[in-house]
Amino acid sequence: MSETFDFTNRLKLICLILIAIGIVSLTFGYLEYAGPESYHQRFWANILVNNFLFLGVAVGATFFVALQYVANAGWSVAIKRIPEAMGAFIPIAAVLMLVFYFAGGKNLYHWIHELHKTVPDAIIAGKSSYLNEPFFIIRMIGFFAIWSFFWWFFRRSSMKEDQTGGLDSYKSSRRLGSIFMILFALTVSFASFDWLMSLDPHWFSTMFGVYSFSGIILHTIAIIAIIVVFLKRKGYLKGTNENHVHDLGRLMFGFSTFWIYIWYFQFMLIWYANIPEETAYFKHRVEGPWLGYFIANAVVNWAIPFFALMTRNSKRNLMNVTIIGIVLVFGYWLDLYVTVFPSAVGVIGETGMMPLPPSIGYLEIGGFLGYIGLFMLVLGRFLSKAPLMPKKHPLLEESLHLHT
Amino acid sequence: MKKLILGVYDDEKTLIKAIKSIRGNEVKLRDVFSPYPVHGLDDAMGLKPSRLPIVAFIAGTIGAASALYFQYWTLVVDWALNIGGKPGFALPSFIIITFETMILSAALTMVGAFFVRSKLFPTFNTDVIHPRATNDQFIIAIDPQKNSVEGDKIKTMLKDNGASDVQDKEVAK
Amino acid sequence: MSEYVSSVRQPLVKDVGSLGEVTEAIANPLNRKPNIYWYAFFIPAVIALIGGIAATSYQIKTGIGTWGNNNSVGWGFAIVNFVFWVGIGHAGTFISAVLLLFRQKWRNSINRAAETMTIFAVICAGLFPVIHLGRIWFAYWLIPYPTGRHLWVNFNSPLLWDVFAIGTYFTVSLVFWYLGMVPDFGTLRDHTKTFIKKKIYALLSMGWSGSAKHWSRHEAISMVLAGLATPLVLSVHSVVSADFATANVPGWHTTIFPPYFVAGAIFSGFAMVLTLMIIVRKIYNFEKYITLYHFEQMAKIIILTGSLVGLAYTTEFFMAWYSQNPLEQSAFLNRVSGPYAWAYWIMVTCNVITPQLFWFKKIRTSIPLIFILSIFVNIGMWFERFVIVMTLHRAQNPDGFGMYTPTGIEFTEFIGSFGLFLTLFLLFIRFGPYIAISEVKDLTAKKLNEEKGV
Question: B: neighbours with 3+ CB pairs under 8 Å?
Answer without folding.
Answer: A, C
